[in-house]
Amino acid sequence: MGRLVVVSNRVADPRKTSAGGLAVALSQALQKTGGLWFGWSGRIEEGAPGEGELHQQQAGPVKLVTVDLCRQDHDEYYLGYSNGVLWPVFHYRLDLADFEANSIGGYRRVNQLFARKLVPYLLPDDVIWVHDYHLIPLAGELRALGCRQHIGFFLHIPLPPPQILAAIPGHDWLLRGLFSYDLLGFQSQTDCDHFGRYVEVEAHAQQVEKGRWRAFGRTVQAGAFPIGIDVEEFESLARAPEATDMYHRMKNEYSRRKLLVGVDRLDYSKGLPHRLRAFRELLTKYPETRDSATLIQIASPSREDVSAYSDILHELESLCGAINGNFGELDWMPVRYIHRTVARARLPGLYRASRVALVTPLRDGMNLVAKEFIVAQDREDPGVLVLSRFAGAAEQLKEALLVNPFDMEGTAATIQVALQMPLEERRQRHQELMRTIRQYDVQWWCDAFLQALAKTQAQETGTPWLRL
Q: From the candidates 182, 191, 267, 364, which is the catalytic residue?
């Protein structure tokens, strides 16, 4: 394999401890070949649309190259189309998509900008790995500029069924863009199946063999590559002073009670109001949980300049206040709600002190919190994972207690089962979950995708890129 070039909306410096497991895995792959990581700088500067200043720095053998965006490009590409159209639609929320924003021009313009700025850095035998929904058209723009390198794409969020995708105005343009890649990676087999049905219905694509589709004069391979975590890194984090201090503080503070924990970004896809209503149902139907169970819900700020996020913030605050007001005692508050980011180094201690983790999104690509919770547990006395069947992780983590987050009564009953689960069953479930998480860690994900990309044959580019 030639040099690896990673392209994503944001670039992480792998030398920094806050980079996270994904950045570490990509960094290891990049360092093997002396690669390049390209993306947006995070800066919004004065300038004309479709232009931006380049910045580059060397991180060992890895070159980090970023480009600035002007306000118009940022608002149309990032806020408008990526997060105002694609994010809600891909999470099955057509009701929240802003189809009238006319931001698709900025989305295409920034992808063209990325392509133009990236091309001078490319070598003929480079292998290019593009990440996530912000950059679906990038391969098509690179092909239009003459790039013939192998290009893979990984979607970190869910892919909805054909009927939902087809609701996007101009969705056929995005569809053609996907066929400019050599390999498409999805989080789950369900997402992969949705892609297959979508291209058959909307592009009359032919399945030339399992996982391989032909349309628009090109053939693309598609497969499920569920992303994992860096198990050793997170285990090390759990042994560090910040995590152990958090663990002992939580055990002392809640020595008389069983902790439930939820850690999420504040996003309508996470099902936080549904989760709180299920917890309220738990307290109502199972009186023995009163004064004995406490839910710590962390909801990190996310895109709070968007009305849908301010609405859910107010709803959560109202629900938490109502639950605490109706069920709380002078020495017990049922819900501890934290609307800020908690340092990642402290989270393993919180996970380990908790009897139950509630990971109940309405729709999620994977959800790595579920895997981190399992890794952080004491194997001699592990907690229980309550997991939404609509999270990508549900395909892998079959020993978790799976729930339908829309069914508040059923979720409450499952939480009660988790709180009462015998030690031997908890140990057995944890052992099986750990086996899966270790086998399919983040390094497996990275290697499996790149090996599959290396196996794809050079594709002909018969149909030119569709111009809007």
A: 364
> Residue range 386-411: average pLDDT?
98
Tokens of 145: 């500029």
Domain boundaries, the chain: 4-228+444-455, 231-439
Residues in the chain, total: 468
Helices (H) and strands (E) in the chain, counts: 17, 16
According to CATH, the superfamily of the domain at 4-228+444-455 is Glycogen Phosphorylase B; (3.40.50.2000)
- Residues 13, 75, 156, 193: which is the catalytic one? 156
Res 463: pLDDT: 43
H helices within 328-422, ranges in order? Answer: 347-353, 369-376, 408-420
Calpha distance 194→200 (Å, rounded): 10
Q: Do domains 4-228+444-455 and 231-439 have the same CATH topology?
A: yes
Residue-level pLDDT at 464: 44
What is the fold, at CATH topology level, of the domain defined by 231-439? Rossmann fold (3.40.50)
Q: Is 156 a catalytic residue?
A: yes
Q: Please tell me the distance from the alpha carbon of residue 241 to that of residue 246, in angstroms, as a whole number.
A: 8
